[in-house]
């Protein structure tokens, strides 16, 4: 009866059965106690689960793992670690439970720390779950070096050809900016399932390589693996990132008529961004209104972003109105609205939006860029003077400023959305966080070495994009920047996005 309650998600009836057991004085054996423990863990009643655990006359590995998993999935890592340290279980299941729990809760650093402990201190043999979870943590942190090291470990076992681990490797390399390595893993897998194909399509899409993404989709259709909803999210994203309107519309129709897949909010949002980014704002608005369900924040945000690019204040205000009706505390909408007013030099409106943010207790997320060097991550904010190597960094920036101007660089002052003098705008552009990170990377890495990889939490501005292209040609270095939307590969004066982002 308890098992049936767990299967049906009927935790209330399960609790009633437990009460009946207590009233009749029936004794439960170890198996039944573990089922009861699982009932409360599944129902998120961890206090009751702990009470059952503490009152069990005997416990086994399943008892400990069940409760540890409950704590980990609820992000109560203090209790999970305490119970883990008190148990006598340092086996694969228990360690995997902790690693998966950390990943599930978004604590990726702890997940990697635990993974390292399993190898160095406890002689636990990693499984496909261990490897895939650790690689997921690397992907989320965009930590290429640890990810590459884990890949090397899998190559010493049979897991390098394992589909689950291979899929995690494809995702890790793609999200860490090494799309060529992602393709090598994809090509080397014994079997590619739908996750493999989707990861490769999405990887090419986020790197601005829409043509490659669509080629992979064509290859997929020649196999017995059927496209699913996630496949078409990747395909439509590739079209929207590349401005491929006719192909995007064709794939959207094909998804419905040829594959029998009903569009969800992600598909509609891709189409809204595709239309909006190309300047078809009225058509994008019409598509939102024709959705067979209530328009989501994602769709309205996509259109608002397009309005900012094309300076359409009226439709932009309408988008912001709908978003703030759903989520009045949405910080990004206030910022985009302010940016839209600033691009059209409506400074009074900018001030009004900023006062509204202050009243609501909202703060604009500061621009932040970071770069890894020899296992240490270095963070930079705009006009940052806190780094120990600041003199060398600013010296490199001065040299880069001089060299880019010799290559006919002209600052795009419109990229500075502040009401200040032109000379102040030019100085402000040269201390953007991604330029500081680039200067540091050029100082610390030898010429001719691997690409300089920078991560930025916001969208890269038009002026920084132009400068990165020039610098890649001047210093003859590949530069990879991952902003909040996609990757930009700068090589010999060109960018993989084709200046469309």
TrEMBL record:
PPR repeat start-end pairs: 29-63, 91-126, 193-227
Keywords tagged on the record: Repeat
Gene Ontology molecular function: RNA binding; zinc ion binding
Record PROSITE patterns: PPR (PS51375)
GO biological process, one term: RNA modification
Record keyword Mitochondrion present: no
Residue ranges of domain DYW in the record: 409-501
NCBIfam families, per database record: PPR
Protein family according to the UniProt entry: Belongs to the PPR family. PCMP-H subfamily.
Protein's UniProt name: DYW domain-containing protein
Species in which this protein is naturally found: Linum tenue
